[in-house]
Amino acid sequence: MHPRDQTIFALSTGRAPSAIAVVRVSGPQARLVLTTLAGKLPAPRQASRRLLRDNSDQPIDDSVVLWFPGPGSATGEDVAEFHVHGGRAVLAALFASISAIPNSRVAEPGEFTQRAFENGKLDLTEAEGLDDLIHADTDRQRRQALRQLQGLLGDRARDWRERIIEASALIEAGIDFSDEGDVPAELRAPALEAIKRLHDEIAEALAAQGHSERLREGLVVAIAGEPNVGKSTLINQLSRRDVAIVSPYAGTTRDVIEVQLDLDGYPVTVIDTAGIRETDDPVEQEGVRRARARAEDADLVLWLVEGGRAVDPDAGPPLLTSGGAVWILRNKIDLNEGGGAPAGGFGISGSRGDGIPELVEALVKFAADFFGTTEGALVTRARQRDLLRQASDSLRRSLDLVEEGEELAAEELRAAAYALGRLLGRVDVEDVLGAIFQKFCIGK
C-alpha cells in the first residue's frame, strides 16, 4: 500500500502530561476515525464537544473535536483533530483506538508537512520556513522564518519561473518559425530583454549583504584563555545562571560547555572551553584540543587574561589561530589596582560584574554587524542560494549563447526554470509547451 493511502496520526502539542493535548489525524480514513471515536461527524471547521469511546464502547475522555474535509485542510487531505486532556493514560487510550482502525498508523517526523507539500498547500521554501519557525529561539529568527512561511522567496521564485517560461516560449517559438522571415527576430528581442531583467533581479538577490542563512544557526562566541583566568565565571555572568563549575584549581573545565543566549533578538551560542596550556594530563589534553578546535571555528573569540598581566594587543592570543575576530578581555580588574582594559579590549570583573553590561552591548553590536540587514532577506538557506545561483548562471549563459543558436539559449533557459522548480519543489516539463500552445497556436 502506498504511504499516501494510509491515514496518519500524531500528537501535535507538547509532551505529556499537559493541560490540553491535540492529536491530528490526516488521510482517507480520517472521517472513519472521527465517527468511530466521537460518533456523529461534526460540521466542518466548527468545534464540537464529544465523549470519545474506544472499540469496546468504553469512555476515553470528554473532548473537543474538529473536522476539516479535504482539500480545504492543512494537508489537503481529510483531517480530524482531537483536543483532549493531556494525560499519558488518555493519550495512550486514544492512540490505541486510532491504531485499531485499518490503514491507520503513527506519522513519521515531518509527514504532515510533507503531505501538505505534495498536495500543493505549500512549496519547499515555505516548508523550510515552517521548520525554521518551529525551531526559532529568538524574535529575529521568528520574523525571518515567518516571512519565508508567508512566501517571501517562494512568491518571487514563482514569478521568476513564470517569466523564464514565457521568455523560453518566445525563444522556442522563434525556432519553430525560423522560416517565417522576420518572425524570429521579432520574438527574440522581447525575450532577451526579459531574460536580462530576470538575471539582474536574481543577481541582486544573491548579492544582498548579510548573513541571513547564519541567523538560523546563530553567532558562535568562544571564551578562551589559559587556565584559571575566569572563563567559567564569565559564562555564568553572561547566562545569568550557574552553568559552568567555578573553582580556584587550574584545569577544572575538561570539556566544552555551550550556552544559548538571546542578545537583542540575535541568537548567540557562547562556548566555555578548557584552559589552553601545555599539560601531561591526557584528559586535560583532550579538553585543550577540543577548546582549540572550537575557538578556531568560532565567529568571535573572547580571550581572557588576568588583570595584572601585561598584554601585547598586536601579538594575538598564544597557541591559537582563529579565523574569526578576537577580543582581549582583562578579567579580575577588581583585584588589580589600575588594571583597566587593554588597548583594543575590555576590562571586566567576572565575579563582581564590572564591565559586563558594556561587554554585552558590544556583543549585540558585533552581532548586528555580523548578520547585517536580515529584514526582507530572500535567501535563508545554502540550498536556496545554490539553486538561485544555478538559475542566474543559466540565464547569463543563455544571453551569451543566443547569437550562436537559439536552441542553445533555450536549453539554458530550461535549466534556469528547472533550478527554480527545484527551489520550489515544483518541476513540470510541460509548462513551456503549455505557454507555447496558448500564445502561438502552433500546429493550428
Distance between the termini: 44 Å
Please identify the structural class as seen in this structure. alpha/beta
Oligomeric organization of the protein chains: single chain
Helix content: 40-55%
Number of strands: 12
Count every helix, treating DSSP H or I runs of 4 or more residues as helices: 14
How many strands, which pairing sense, and closed or not: the largest β-sheet?
6 strands, mixed
Could you spell the SSE succession in H and E letters? EEHEEEHEHHHHHHEHEEHEEEHHHH
Strand % is 15-25%
Report strand order across the widest sheet.
3-4-5-2-1-6
The best one-word shape is flat
Any chance you could write out the topology, listing elements then pairs?
Layout: E1 7-11, E2 18-26, H1 30-38, E3 48-53, E4 59-68, E5 79-86, H2 88-99, E6 104-106, H3 111-118, H4 124-134, H5 139-149, H6 152-176, H7 183-207, H8 212-217, E7 219-225, H9 231-239, E8 257-263, E9 266-272, H10 282-297, E10 300-306, E11 325-331, E12 346-347, H11 356-371, H12 382-401, H13 406-424, H14 431-440
Parallel strand pairs: 1-6, 7-9, 7-10, 10-11, 11-12
Antiparallel strand pairs: 1-2, 2-5, 3-4, 4-5, 8-9
Helix pairs in contact: 4-5, 6-7, 6-13, 6-14, 7-12, 12-13
Give a summary of the structure in a few sentences.
By secondary structure, this protein is of the alpha/beta class. The chain has 14 helices and twelve strands.
Textual characterization of the structure:
- The chain has 444 residues and is α/β, with parallel strands linked by helices.
- It is built from 14 helices and twelve strands.
- The strands form two sheets. The chain has a six-stranded mixed sheet. Strands 8-9-7-10-11-12 form a six-stranded mixed sheet, sandwiched between helices.
- A hairpin with a 6-residue loop joins strand 1 (7-11) and strand 2.
- Helix 6 runs antiparallel to helix 13 and helix 12 (382-401) runs antiparallel to helix 13 (406-424).
- It is flat.
- It starts with 6 loop residues before the first strand and ends with a helix.
- Mean pLDDT is 79; it is low at 244-254 and 429-444.
